[in-house]
């Protein structure tokens, strides 16, 4: 239980604000800022201009008619419901996982950490294929499940939730683990020496300490689940009301009614931004 | 049973929103046989006068946007064309017909467009983005595909209306789905799909993976999948024929080579390739 040296990443909420002005930390030479400003501007343009174009090109006159379509409300409700369920699932398994990873040492932990991060860099469609190989009717687990209980997972709403959890879980784990590593362990140790049980320490000390990290991880997880497409269409298929979430609806609308697809894209953009802004705002204050 | 056959293509152009035409299968089959009758000799590809009118001058890249159901036929036609015109590189981009049409409407630089329905070609024609009116290359019909072990014991369309079976269909928004919907309406059945896929190959993949008991796909897809799926013929499907119109695009970067490629598609050799892939070919080059 000796306190080990850890990289402390705390204090970022205070520093680094534009114009925050603790001279030596923030101030960079003017020339350096100009040099950095050009590629930085290109970066911002790369991220913002396409979304701006999307908004500009959207046929707003058709928006009421498109949004009034019962199928859109259905897809939106399904998206929000599945993303919430997937986020709940991720919290349930992701918090303990992040805690273990943050506290563990050695090769096993490093291996698990690397494996857990794989979906971050994996094309989601590959994730969908992998889920099929495990849980499909001919999958490693899916076949015995089907034979023993007659349960098949693909093409169900549960498959959507699983696909979303698969791609979103790493975001939560990485964020929470980072927060746990950055937190000062002495608080926990003091609480323990004062007689608090491990459960009380976790609830009263550790969780409040890392709450911002948990919240930001949850937001990222939820946003990623909301936008999930590749794994969902591969593993869960696309049936209105059952598995056709809003991103799948956008892709299909592109085939038949591109104008409607633009309206739906903006809707998805607004919902995702709302999630980010509302939750992040609460966290920052 | 086909009084308006001679004026068919003009007819397709004028009708603003053509639905997939229900046409007597006999007419198509007879036309197909007529085309095949003169194409029995598959030898001497280099000597085809139709496909290579200006072969010495052709060079550059021909970009062909083709419907996903043409995947295998296009690979073969690409090879055939490139062997005749070694300085031309044919690049085939395969996707759902509606997506391809949308790409052309958005100004994608392409030379030839081949879609899996006249309905998806129409917006491109209306926008005057084709050099000449589209030529119908071939047609296709639907067939049920099941995994080789046929876990759902599927015998016909009625089994695709059974909620107890796992069924993949194309979404009604894409050509194969529109044709499927028409077929089900024709036989008076309400299908019970478990997933509505975005293109026909995605539906076929679900069968190949054994995730569904059956999917309604094109006959050509069943043939292309070989031993991985089994076809269950649907007699009524002969009444729902999907046509494949092709056109050289008005803004084609390589118009001459594009015309030569279209000539190959409509030549006896090109039609042979399509017929081998399971397509119904008509004598589109001269009709």
Automatic annotation (TrEMBL), chain A:
Keywords, alphabetical: Cell membrane, Membrane, Molybdenum, Transmembrane, Transmembrane helix, Transport
InterPro entries named among the record's database cross-references: MetI-like, MetI-like_sf, ModB_ABC, NifC_ABC_porter
A GO cellular-component term linked to this record: plasma membrane
Superkingdom classification of source: Bacteria
Subcellular location: Cell membrane
Domain ABC transmembrane type-1: 76-279
UniProt main location, coarse: membrane
Membrane-spanning ranges: 34-56, 76-102, 114-135, 155-176, 260-279
Record-linked PROSITE patterns: ABC_TM1
Membrane topology, record value: Multi-pass membrane protein
Chain's role: Part of the binding-protein-dependent transport system for molybdenum; probably responsible for the translocation of the substrate across the membrane.
Alphabetical list of PANTHER family matching this protein: MOLYBDENUM TRANSPORT SYSTEM PERMEASE PROTEIN MODB (PTHR30183)
Descriptive protein name: Molybdenum transport system permease
Taxonomic source organism: Cellulomonas marina
From TrEMBL, chain B:
Matching Gene3D superfamilies: Periplasmic binding protein-like II
GO biological process, one term: molybdate ion transport
Binding site residues for molybdate: 69, 97, 200, 218
Annotated GO MF terms: metal ion binding; molybdate ion binding
InterPro entries: ModA, ModA/WtpA
Keywords per UniProt: Metal-binding, Molybdenum, Signal
Pfam families documented for this protein: SBP_bac_11 (PF13531)
Signal peptide: 1-39
Similarity comment: Belongs to the bacterial solute-binding protein ModA family.
Protein name (database record): Molybdate transport system substrate-binding protein
Provenance organism: Cellulomonas marina
